[in-house]
Each structure stands twice: as structure tokens, then as C-alpha cells.
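Hi all, posting the design record for the shared folder.

TITLE: backbone redesign
STEP: 1 of 1
STRUCTURE INPUT:
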């Protein structure tokens, strides 16, 4: 249940933190096999949806709160508030600010609030919990809080339920964009972005999962390794060296088993 990954301050759920584990090789391979695709197709969608990372530096899953969904689910009962409006928009800053908006909505209607946010790597709306095989949105959110592997599984379940897995397999980016992002996908050139991302991943270097894991966990520890993209550069090397020195490990700036073990979130 959600209670195990939500920290309450007063009566307001402000922090959603679970295991916060990074994508595993087994998790990625399993979802690719389920969808009948390879890693480039999966990274294509995630890079466009979330820049390829499902957690914030504070270990909460990445979300986006949709005020028009909240308004619809609550039949406009709270439209006097900033977080409820029949018109989409009003997002404000990304990141932690979205949890401030979610907290306002939770104070009004918890279930509708959780359903009105999109969660994790695939930014799947909470209102789609049944499509992912969950009995309620609380269970879906609990899974999204735990691991990126769970977020991967949710993404795969949504694609199959929405019958969009065939569009991903055939690289029909227009069909995928329409079904995944809605009828206004062209406004943000969603299909064009998907195509560009696929060309990048299908012909170039894929994220190194060990490096990506180190980058994600370094952000949890308060270091700045640069983007969590599995393509380490000088910032990642410097952050690794700082962490290794702090923990009394050999200062190599490289990702090794000992460093990953020390970085793993408790």
C-alpha cells in the first residue's frame, strides 16, 4: 500500500519515497522482450517523456500534475483552486513544485489527486491504474515509488492495454504519439521528437546501465554527476572521485562494484 512509501507531514502527503532503485539490466531486457522490441525503442520513449530518468534527486518519482484531469474527476467541485481548472496548463516549475501542487490537491480529494498526476519514466497517468493491472491508484503509486523496473513494467502494461505496442514495434511514431500523448501531439512535435530520438539510439551509443545507476545514486547523495543518461563525462567522473574519496574507496573516477554497492540507497 502507499502508506509504506509516503512520508506524512501533518495531514499532507509531501514526500513519496520508496526504494528508488534504478533500472536493472534484467528489468530492461524483460520489458523489451514483453513488448517485442529492443532497448533503442524503450529509450526513445523515455528520453522524450522524462529525459530518461524516473526519479528526482530527492528520490521521489518524477510527476506532472494535470489540473484539468483533477477538475474532471471531481466534477469541477474545486475549480476555485489553482490545482483545479477545466483548462489544461498552469503547470509551473517541474520537479519538486509538482509535489507542492499534488499536496494541495490531496488536501481536497486524495484519490482524484493521485489519479491526476503522471508518474515515473513513462509518465503514466494515475487514472490509468486499471490498464496497468492495479486494483487502485494507491497500489500503482506505491509501485512507481519503489523502482524504475516497476515503472518499466507499468509502461509496458499501458502500451499493451492501449494497443500501442504494435506502433512501437513498427516505429509508427505518429500513431504512437497520438495514442500516448493525445490528439494534440503535433503541437509539441511529439512524433518528430520520437523519430529523432530513435535515430539517435538506434545508430549511436545506448546508455550504460552501471554508469546510469551511479549517476542516479550520486544525485541522491547530493553530488552533481550531470544528466542521468548512462553516458558519463567529466562531471560524472569528478562526482565519482569525490564520493570515493569521501567513503575511503580507491579514487578512480570509474564505476566499479564497490562504488555501486556504497552508492546504493538504503
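Okay, here is what came back for every position:
SEQUENCE:
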Amino acid at each position: 500500500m502507499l502508506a509504506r512509501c509516503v512520508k506524512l507531514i501533518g495531514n499532507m502527503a509531501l514526500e513519496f519515497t520508496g526504494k528508488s532503485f534504478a533500472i536493472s539490466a534484467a528489468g530492461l531486457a524483460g520489458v523489451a522482450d514483453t513488448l517485442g522490441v529492443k532497448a533503442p525503442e524503450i529509450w526513445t520513449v523515455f528520453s522524450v517523456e522524462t529525459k530518461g530518468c524516473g526519479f528526482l534527486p530527492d528520490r521521489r518519482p518524477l510527476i506532472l500534475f494535470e489540473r484539468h484531469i483533477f477538475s474532471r474527476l471531481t466534477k469541477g467541485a474545486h475549480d476555485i483552486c489553482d490545482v483545479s481548472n477545466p483548462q489544461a496548463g498552469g503547470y509551473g516549475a517541474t520537479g519538486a513544485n509538482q509535489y507542492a501542487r499534488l499536496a494541495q490537491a490531496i488536501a481536497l480529494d486524495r484519490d482524484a489527486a493521485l489519479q491526476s498526476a503522471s508518474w515515473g519514466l513513462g509518465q503514466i497517468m494515475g487514472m490509468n491504474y486499471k490498464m496497468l493491472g492495479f486494483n487502485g491508484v494507491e497500489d500503482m503509486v506505491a509501485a512507481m515509488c519503489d523502482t524504475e523496473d516497476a515503472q518499466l513494467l507499468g509502461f509496458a502494461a499501458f502500451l499493451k492495454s492501449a494497443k500501442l505496442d504494435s506502433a512501437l514495434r513498427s516505429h509508427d511514431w505518429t500513431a504512437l504519439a497520438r495514442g500516448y500523448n493525445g490528439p494534440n501531439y503535433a503541437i509539441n512535435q511529439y512524433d518528430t521528437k520520437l523519430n529523432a530520438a530513435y535515430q539517435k539510439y538506434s545508430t549511436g551509443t545506448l546508455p550504460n546501465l552501471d554508469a546510469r545507476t551511479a549517476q542516479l545514486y550520486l544525485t541522491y547523495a547530493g553530488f552533481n554527476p550531470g544528466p542521468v543518461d548512462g553516458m558519463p563525462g567529466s562531471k560524472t567522473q569528478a562526482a565519482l572521485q569525490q564520493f570515493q574519496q569521501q567513503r575511503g574507496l580507491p579514487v578512480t573516477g570509474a564505476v566499479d562494484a564497490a562504488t555501486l554497492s556504497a552508492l546504493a540507497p538504503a
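COMMENT: Strands lie at 6-9, 12-16, 63-65, 117-119, 124-125.
Let me know if anyone wants the other runs.
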